[in-house]
Amino acid sequence: MEVSVLNMAGEEVSTVELPAAIFNARVNRGLMHQALVRQLANARQGTHKAKGRSEVNKSTAKIYRQKGTGRARHGSRRAPIFVGGGVAHGPKPRSYDKKMPRKMRRAALRSALTIKAKNGDIVLLDSISMDAPKTKTFVAMMEKLVTKNSALLLLAGQDENVEKSAHNLTDVKALRASYLNIRDLLGYEKIVLPLAALDAIGEFLGEDDSAWESVETGEVE
């Protein structure tokens, strides 16, 4: 698939053939869903906690006499039926971590990148650089590249000027290519790729993991 390469002014300067192994892979939607669920689950802290009846600070004295009141027999204000009592079967700290083989995760990324490429949502840049962090300048550049769409800008490596310029924007995210993940790929409409970042993606997604791309984990196109 041949895609135009733009400069920071939004002008076409050349064309590049996208690697078929990454941007024309077999799309496995079930694998993408599994990878997304895994990432969202692993992001949960799992620190939720409710006190049970043995942990509530209440008097241990019997609240009223056993017989003669006409009421049910109770011995503690800590019981879950009382206001201020413990919580029955409440949440406890736990881990939500899910495991997924690396080859499957990478196959899911290739599926997402293939969909983006087929929909024309890949924008290639010859290079990107800024002399200093400047959000206004960065916004003007992005408007020329992706108009009003949300965008994920992938960087080949650390670039503090670009990263800080995009930090306060709600619809644009600057991310290093080595941190590419399924949540960000699916969460933004456009993917802006400098050629250096394209090479960086090719280093870890260009490997032959085709055995996982045909795994029957859902709808396959």
Report on this structure:
The chain has 221 residues and is α/β, with parallel strands linked by helices. The chain folds into two domains: 2-43 and 97-213, 3-Layer(aba) Sandwich (Ribosomal Protein L4, Chain: A), CATH 3.40.1370.10; 49-95, no CATH class. It has eight helices and six strands, in the order E-E-H-H-H-E-H-E-H-E-H-E-H-H. The protein has helices at 20-23, 29-42, 102-118, 135-146, 160-166, 182-187, 195-205, 210-213; strands spanning 2-6, 12-17, 122-125, 151-155, 172-176, 190-194. The protein has a six-stranded mixed beta sheet with strand order 2-1-3-6-4-5. Strand 4, helix 5 (160-166) and strand 5 (172-176) form a beta-alpha-beta unit. Helix 2 (29-42) packs across helix 3 (102-118) and helix 4 packs across helix 5 (160-166). The longest helix is centred in the middle third of the chain and has 17 residues, at 102-118. The chain is elongated and about 95 Å long. The protein starts with a strand and ends in an 8-residue tail after the last helix. 24% of the residues are buried.
In a few lines, what is going on in this structure?
This protein has 221 residues and is α/β, with parallel strands linked by helices. The protein has helices at residues 20-23, 29-42, 102-118, 135-146, 160-166, 182-187, 195-205, 210-213, and strands spanning 2-6, 12-17, 122-125, 151-155, 172-176, 190-194.
